């Protein structure tokens, strides 16, 4: 049986000297699978991601990458295999967009000339793939919020990871770039784990959806199962209706 590329088992976490805000979180993600994590504000979505990309250690439980606890990998080895795109964008540091993308190659740096050539090729390909060529040499601080977000995704792609983790990647993007980015993520062939607040986009682009409610897994499965009216109502404390008569589900909500 093939091991999942990423597996969470019994994860619990909370801020120092405070109760757990995530309890007994378990799931596994297969190679090439796109999983969306959904839930109300405060459900623990971003905190869960921080454990998955080795920023914080769980109080209990393990996160395994290809069968090995990520805390037994070095930080550099983890960065070669897991890339993260966060909601918080970095300060300017007077760098250009190209220089920001180039930071993605740091875990792979060896100092050899052949490696430098390879780095330049990967950086250029990531910039082109995110349609950033015309902004590549502009100062990062002069870009719009959406352009900055695309630069950060390009930086993550430059890491050449096996697993790409994104926290609300469609924030700051207009509708066209939201659709383009999610289509791009689906076409990468990577394992993708992202939080999404837009349930329509999650249902359209994710293979699986994990719904969190009050720090626990409420549902985990294909979109039509995970995003049932009952699960949405429970997770978001609303009355939900799902219309599945068309090619994509349509959601409506009422207090």
Which terms summarize this structure?
single chain; 255 residues; four-stranded antiparallel β-sheet; 9 helices; globular
Task: Give your account of this protein's structure.
By secondary structure, the chain is an alpha/beta fold. The protein has one domain: Rossmann fold. Helix content is 33%, strand content 25%. The protein has helices spanning 45-52, 75-81, 97-102, 113-129, 145-158, 175-187, 199-205, 223-226, 229-236; strands spanning 6-13, 22-29, 34-38, 60-65, 68-69, 82-85, 163-167, 191-195, 208-213, 216-221, 239-243, 250-254. The strands form three sheets. The chain has a six-stranded mixed β-sheet with strand order 6-7-8-3-9-10, with helices on both faces. A four-stranded antiparallel β-sheet has the order 2-1-4-5. A hairpin with a 6-residue loop joins β11 (239-243) and β12. α4 (113-129) packs antiparallel against α5 (145-158). The longest helix is centred in the middle third of the chain and has 17 residues, at 113-129. The model has no long low-confidence stretch (mean pLDDT 92). Belongs to the ABC transporter superfamily. Pfam families: ABC_tran. Keywords: ATP-binding, Nucleotide-binding, Transport. This is ABC transporter.
């Amino acid at each position: 049986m093939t091991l999942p590329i990423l597996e969470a088992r019994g994860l619990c976490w909370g801020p120092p000297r405070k109760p757990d805000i995530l309890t007994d979180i378990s799931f596994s993600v297969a190679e090439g699978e796109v999983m969306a994590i959904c839930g109300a504000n405060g459900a623990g979505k971003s905190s869960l991601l921080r454990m998955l990309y080795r920023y914080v250690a769980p109080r209990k439980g393990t996160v395994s990458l290809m069968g090995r606890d990520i805390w037994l990998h070095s930080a550099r080895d983890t960065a070669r295999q897991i890339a993260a795109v966060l909601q918080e964008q970095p300060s300017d540091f007077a760098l250009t967009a190209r220089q920001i993308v180039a930071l993605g190659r740091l875990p792979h740096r060896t100092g050899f000339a052949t490696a430098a050539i390879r780095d330049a090729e990967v950086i250029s390909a990531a910039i082109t793939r995110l349609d950033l060529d015309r902004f590549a040499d502009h100062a990062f601080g002069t870009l719009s919020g959406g352009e900055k977000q695309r630069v950060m995704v390009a930086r993550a792609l430059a890491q050449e990871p096996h697993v790409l983790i994104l926290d609300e990647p469609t924030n700051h993007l207009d509708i066209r770039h939201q659709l383009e980015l999610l289509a791009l993520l689906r076409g990468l062939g990577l394992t993708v784990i992202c939080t999404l607040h837009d349930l329509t986009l999650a249902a359209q682009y994710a293979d699986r959806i994990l719904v969190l409610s009050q720090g626990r897994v409420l549902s985990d499965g294909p979109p039509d199962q995970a995003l049932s009216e009952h699960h949405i109502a429970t997770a978001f404390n609303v009355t939900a209706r799902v219309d599945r008569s068309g090619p994509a589900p349509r959601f409506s909500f009422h207090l």
